[in-house]
Amino acid sequence: MPYDAIIIGASIIDIPAGPVDASVFSTGSHPVDRLAFQVGGDAINEATVLSHLGADIKLISKIGSDPGGDFILQHCRRHRIDTSSFVTDPSMDTGINIVLIEKNGERSFITSRSGGLRQLKPEDIDLSAFSESALLCFASIFVFPYFQNDDLVRIFSKAKEQGMTLCADMTKCKNGETTEDIRGALSYLDYVFPNLEEAQMVTRKEDPDEAADVFLDCGVRHAVIKLGKQGCLIKSRSERIIVPAVPGAVCLDTTGAGDNFAAGFLYGLIKKQPLYECGRLANETAAHCIARMGATAWIE
Asked: DSSP 3-state assignment of 276?
Protein backbone atom coordinates (compact mmCIF):
# COMPACT_ATOMS: atom_id res chain seq x y z
CA MET A 1 0.00 0.00 0.00
CA PRO A 2 1.31 3.50 -0.78
CA TYR A 3 0.90 4.93 2.74
CA ASP A 4 2.00 3.69 6.15
CA ALA A 5 -0.87 5.58 7.78
CA ILE A 6 -3.79 7.87 7.04
CA ILE A 7 -4.47 10.63 9.57
CA ILE A 8 -7.83 12.44 9.79
CA GLY A 9 -8.22 15.74 11.64
CA ALA A 10 -7.35 19.40 12.03
CA SER A 11 -4.71 21.40 10.20
CA ILE A 12 -4.39 24.99 11.41
CA ILE A 13 -1.86 27.69 12.26
CA ASP A 14 -0.38 27.97 15.76
CA ILE A 15 1.21 31.19 17.05
CA PRO A 16 3.00 30.21 20.28
CA ALA A 17 4.04 33.06 22.57
CA GLY A 18 5.88 32.74 25.81
CA PRO A 19 6.67 32.59 28.52
CA VAL A 20 3.78 34.75 29.75
CA ASP A 21 1.83 35.23 32.97
CA ALA A 22 -1.21 37.23 34.05
CA SER A 23 0.72 40.51 33.65
CA VAL A 24 0.31 40.20 29.87
CA PHE A 25 -3.18 41.63 30.33
CA SER A 26 -2.05 44.68 32.33
CA THR A 27 0.87 45.92 30.23
CA GLY A 28 0.77 47.80 26.96
CA SER A 29 3.60 45.74 25.53
CA HIS A 30 4.82 42.34 26.69
CA PRO A 31 8.06 41.03 25.13
CA VAL A 32 8.50 37.25 25.10
CA ASP A 33 11.41 34.93 24.36
CA ARG A 34 9.73 33.48 21.29
CA LEU A 35 6.80 34.32 19.04
CA ALA A 36 6.43 31.99 16.07
CA PHE A 37 4.15 31.18 13.12
CA GLN A 38 3.86 27.43 12.54
CA VAL A 39 1.44 24.66 11.72
CA GLY A 40 -0.74 23.20 14.45
CA GLY A 41 -3.72 20.95 14.98
CA ASP A 42 -3.82 17.33 16.07
CA ALA A 43 -3.71 15.66 12.68
CA ILE A 44 -1.03 17.74 10.98
CA ASN A 45 1.14 17.48 14.11
CA GLU A 46 0.87 13.68 14.03
CA ALA A 47 1.46 13.57 10.28
CA THR A 48 4.51 15.83 10.50
CA VAL A 49 6.16 13.80 13.24
CA LEU A 50 5.42 10.50 11.49
CA SER A 51 6.87 11.79 8.25
CA HIS A 52 9.98 12.97 10.10
CA LEU A 53 10.36 9.48 11.57
CA GLY A 54 10.31 8.05 8.05
CA ALA A 55 6.68 7.05 7.48
CA ASP A 56 4.69 7.75 4.31
CA ILE A 57 1.56 9.63 5.37
CA LYS A 58 -1.71 10.75 3.79
CA LEU A 59 -3.52 13.54 5.66
CA ILE A 60 -7.27 14.13 5.37
CA SER A 61 -8.06 17.64 6.57
CA LYS A 62 -9.78 20.95 5.77
CA ILE A 63 -8.33 24.39 5.13
CA GLY A 64 -9.43 27.75 3.82
CA SER A 65 -8.44 29.27 0.50
CA ASP A 66 -6.19 31.85 2.12
CA PRO A 67 -2.54 32.49 3.10
CA GLY A 68 -2.91 30.21 6.13
CA GLY A 69 -4.08 27.37 3.92
CA ASP A 70 -1.22 28.02 1.50
CA PHE A 71 1.26 27.87 4.40
CA ILE A 72 -0.13 24.49 5.47
CA LEU A 73 0.11 23.09 1.94
CA GLN A 74 3.71 24.32 1.63
CA HIS A 75 4.53 22.68 4.96
CA CYS A 76 3.04 19.38 3.79
CA ARG A 77 4.99 19.47 0.53
CA ARG A 78 8.19 20.14 2.47
CA HIS A 79 7.52 17.20 4.78
CA ARG A 80 6.30 14.79 2.08
CA ILE A 81 2.74 14.58 3.46
CA ASP A 82 0.13 13.70 0.85
CA THR A 83 -2.72 16.26 0.74
CA SER A 84 -4.69 14.87 -2.22
CA SER A 85 -7.68 14.22 0.08
CA PHE A 86 -7.70 17.75 1.55
CA VAL A 87 -10.88 19.83 1.34
CA THR A 88 -10.30 23.53 0.56
CA ASP A 89 -13.28 25.68 1.53
CA PRO A 90 -13.14 29.30 0.29
CA SER A 91 -16.04 30.25 2.56
CA MET A 92 -14.03 29.77 5.77
CA ASP A 93 -10.76 31.01 7.23
CA THR A 94 -7.99 28.55 7.96
CA GLY A 95 -7.95 28.12 11.73
CA ILE A 96 -5.48 30.11 13.83
CA ASN A 97 -4.64 29.47 17.50
CA ILE A 98 -2.74 31.92 19.66
CA VAL A 99 -0.96 29.77 22.24
CA LEU A 100 -0.04 31.52 25.50
CA ILE A 101 2.66 29.50 27.25
CA GLU A 102 3.35 29.82 30.98
CA LYS A 103 6.77 29.45 32.60
CA ASN A 104 5.95 25.89 33.71
CA GLY A 105 5.20 24.86 30.12
CA GLU A 106 1.41 24.75 30.49
CA ARG A 107 -0.53 26.62 27.82
CA SER A 108 -3.84 28.28 27.05
CA PHE A 109 -5.36 28.65 23.59
CA ILE A 110 -7.12 31.62 22.05
CA THR A 111 -9.16 30.24 19.15
CA SER A 112 -11.35 31.73 16.45
CA ARG A 113 -15.01 30.69 16.29
CA SER A 114 -15.04 31.39 12.54
CA GLY A 115 -11.81 29.54 11.77
CA GLY A 116 -11.38 26.04 10.43
CA LEU A 117 -10.29 24.27 13.63
CA ARG A 118 -13.66 22.58 14.17
CA GLN A 119 -15.12 22.81 10.66
CA LEU A 120 -14.29 19.32 9.38
CA LYS A 121 -17.53 17.47 8.56
CA PRO A 122 -18.31 13.78 7.93
CA GLU A 123 -18.91 14.45 4.23
CA ASP A 124 -15.36 15.85 3.96
CA ILE A 125 -13.81 12.42 4.62
CA ASP A 126 -12.53 10.66 1.51
CA LEU A 127 -13.54 7.08 2.32
CA SER A 128 -12.05 5.83 -0.95
CA ALA A 129 -8.59 6.61 0.43
CA PHE A 130 -8.95 3.90 3.08
CA SER A 131 -7.82 1.27 0.58
CA GLU A 132 -4.40 2.97 0.44
CA SER A 133 -3.16 2.09 3.94
CA ALA A 134 -3.44 -0.54 6.66
CA LEU A 135 -3.52 2.03 9.50
CA LEU A 136 -5.97 4.86 10.21
CA CYS A 137 -5.90 7.39 13.05
CA PHE A 138 -8.80 9.74 13.78
CA ALA A 139 -7.39 12.78 15.59
CA SER A 140 -9.32 13.55 17.67
CA ILE A 141 -12.64 12.45 19.13
CA PHE A 142 -14.58 15.47 20.52
CA VAL A 143 -12.69 18.05 18.42
CA PHE A 144 -15.29 18.25 15.66
CA PRO A 145 -18.89 19.12 16.64
CA TYR A 146 -20.27 17.83 13.32
CA PHE A 147 -19.20 14.26 14.11
CA GLN A 148 -21.75 12.35 16.15
CA ASN A 149 -21.53 8.68 17.17
CA ASP A 150 -23.35 7.51 14.03
CA ASP A 151 -20.94 9.45 11.80
CA LEU A 152 -17.93 7.91 13.52
CA VAL A 153 -19.50 4.44 13.26
CA ARG A 154 -19.96 4.90 9.50
CA ILE A 155 -16.35 6.01 9.02
CA PHE A 156 -14.84 3.48 11.42
CA SER A 157 -16.86 0.58 10.01
CA LYS A 158 -15.62 1.45 6.53
CA ALA A 159 -12.04 1.36 7.81
CA LYS A 160 -12.58 -2.06 9.39
CA GLU A 161 -14.17 -3.35 6.16
CA GLN A 162 -10.83 -2.47 4.54
CA GLY A 163 -9.01 -4.45 7.25
CA MET A 164 -7.36 -1.36 8.74
CA THR A 165 -5.91 -1.08 12.24
CA LEU A 166 -7.97 1.76 13.70
CA CYS A 167 -6.71 4.29 16.25
CA ALA A 168 -8.14 7.49 17.71
CA ASP A 169 -6.73 10.27 19.80
CA MET A 170 -9.05 12.18 22.10
CA THR A 171 -9.55 15.61 23.60
CA LYS A 172 -11.75 16.77 26.46
CA CYS A 173 -15.45 16.09 25.96
CA LYS A 174 -17.27 19.37 25.39
CA ASN A 175 -20.84 18.63 26.49
CA GLY A 176 -20.54 16.15 29.32
CA GLU A 177 -20.42 13.14 27.00
CA THR A 178 -19.52 9.74 28.42
CA THR A 179 -18.23 6.57 26.85
CA GLU A 180 -21.84 5.37 26.63
CA ASP A 181 -22.58 8.18 24.17
CA ILE A 182 -19.85 6.95 21.82
CA ARG A 183 -19.88 3.25 22.68
CA GLY A 184 -20.74 2.33 19.10
CA ALA A 185 -17.72 4.18 17.71
CA LEU A 186 -15.38 2.96 20.44
CA SER A 187 -16.25 -0.66 19.67
CA TYR A 188 -14.34 -0.40 16.37
CA LEU A 189 -11.11 0.95 17.86
CA ASP A 190 -7.93 -1.07 18.20
CA TYR A 191 -6.21 1.74 20.15
CA VAL A 192 -7.43 4.91 21.88
CA PHE A 193 -5.03 7.58 23.22
CA PRO A 194 -6.63 9.82 25.89
CA ASN A 195 -4.62 11.61 28.53
CA LEU A 196 -5.62 10.95 32.13
CA GLU A 197 -7.86 14.02 32.48
CA GLU A 198 -9.66 13.23 29.22
CA ALA A 199 -10.11 9.61 30.27
CA GLN A 200 -11.43 10.64 33.69
CA MET A 201 -13.95 13.05 32.17
CA VAL A 202 -15.43 10.62 29.66
CA THR A 203 -15.37 7.47 31.83
CA ARG A 204 -16.26 9.12 35.17
CA LYS A 205 -13.43 7.11 36.76
CA GLU A 206 -10.51 8.72 38.60
CA ASP A 207 -8.18 5.72 38.65
CA PRO A 208 -6.30 5.15 35.36
CA ASP A 209 -6.84 1.38 35.46
CA GLU A 210 -10.55 1.76 36.09
CA ALA A 211 -10.81 4.31 33.27
CA ALA A 212 -8.96 1.94 30.94
CA ASP A 213 -11.36 -0.85 31.90
CA VAL A 214 -14.33 1.30 30.86
CA PHE A 215 -12.82 1.71 27.39
CA LEU A 216 -12.17 -2.03 27.19
CA ASP A 217 -15.77 -2.75 28.24
CA CYS A 218 -16.90 -0.60 25.29
CA GLY A 219 -14.97 -2.84 22.91
CA VAL A 220 -11.69 -0.95 22.53
CA ARG A 221 -8.88 -3.50 22.12
CA HIS A 222 -6.15 -1.37 23.76
CA ALA A 223 -6.57 1.65 26.04
CA VAL A 224 -3.40 3.76 26.03
CA ILE A 225 -3.64 6.44 28.73
CA LYS A 226 -1.05 9.23 28.81
CA LEU A 227 0.07 9.84 32.39
CA GLY A 228 2.38 12.83 31.91
CA LYS A 229 5.41 12.60 34.21
CA GLN A 230 4.44 9.01 35.07
CA GLY A 231 4.66 7.83 31.46
CA CYS A 232 1.74 5.85 30.08
CA LEU A 233 -0.54 2.92 30.82
CA ILE A 234 -1.28 0.39 28.07
CA LYS A 235 -4.07 -2.02 28.88
CA SER A 236 -5.89 -4.75 27.01
CA ARG A 237 -7.94 -7.75 28.14
CA SER A 238 -4.75 -9.77 28.50
CA GLU A 239 -1.99 -7.23 29.28
CA ARG A 240 -1.24 -4.33 31.59
CA ILE A 241 1.92 -2.37 30.86
CA ILE A 242 3.32 0.76 32.51
CA VAL A 243 5.96 2.53 30.42
CA PRO A 244 7.91 5.12 32.46
CA ALA A 245 8.40 8.64 31.15
CA VAL A 246 11.78 9.68 29.79
CA PRO A 247 13.97 10.50 32.84
CA GLY A 248 15.17 14.08 33.10
CA ALA A 249 12.88 15.41 30.39
CA VAL A 250 12.79 19.22 30.31
CA CYS A 251 9.39 20.87 29.84
CA LEU A 252 9.24 24.28 28.14
CA ASP A 253 5.91 23.87 26.34
CA THR A 254 3.31 21.08 26.47
CA THR A 255 1.63 22.17 23.22
CA GLY A 256 1.28 19.12 20.97
CA ALA A 257 2.75 16.69 23.49
CA GLY A 258 -0.23 14.36 23.12
CA ASP A 259 -0.07 14.54 19.33
CA ASN A 260 3.63 13.68 19.41
CA PHE A 261 2.89 10.81 21.80
CA ALA A 262 0.28 9.42 19.41
CA ALA A 263 2.67 9.76 16.47
CA GLY A 264 5.40 7.88 18.31
CA PHE A 265 3.01 5.09 19.25
CA LEU A 266 1.69 4.89 15.66
CA TYR A 267 5.25 4.64 14.37
CA GLY A 268 5.83 1.70 16.68
CA LEU A 269 2.71 0.03 15.25
CA ILE A 270 3.89 0.72 11.70
CA LYS A 271 7.20 -0.98 12.54
CA LYS A 272 5.31 -3.87 14.21
CA GLN A 273 7.02 -3.28 17.55
CA PRO A 274 5.87 -4.85 20.86
CA LEU A 275 3.48 -2.76 22.93
CA TYR A 276 6.14 -1.72 25.46
CA GLU A 277 8.35 -0.43 22.65
CA CYS A 278 5.41 1.47 21.13
CA GLY A 279 4.91 3.15 24.50
CA ARG A 280 8.59 3.91 24.84
CA LEU A 281 8.67 5.51 21.38
CA ALA A 282 5.56 7.52 22.27
CA ASN A 283 7.06 8.83 25.53
CA GLU A 284 10.35 9.64 23.83
CA THR A 285 8.66 11.55 21.01
CA ALA A 286 6.57 13.54 23.49
CA ALA A 287 9.74 14.36 25.47
CA HIS A 288 11.34 15.80 22.33
CA CYS A 289 8.24 17.93 21.82
CA ILE A 290 8.02 19.51 25.27
CA ALA A 291 11.68 20.52 25.23
CA ARG A 292 10.94 23.13 22.53
CA MET A 293 8.30 25.81 22.08
CA GLY A 294 5.75 24.64 19.53
CA ALA A 295 4.24 21.27 18.70
CA THR A 296 6.70 20.31 15.96
CA ALA A 297 9.53 22.81 16.54
CA TRP A 298 11.89 20.00 17.53
CA ILE A 299 11.99 18.64 13.99
CA GLU A 300 12.08 21.91 12.06
From this structure: helix
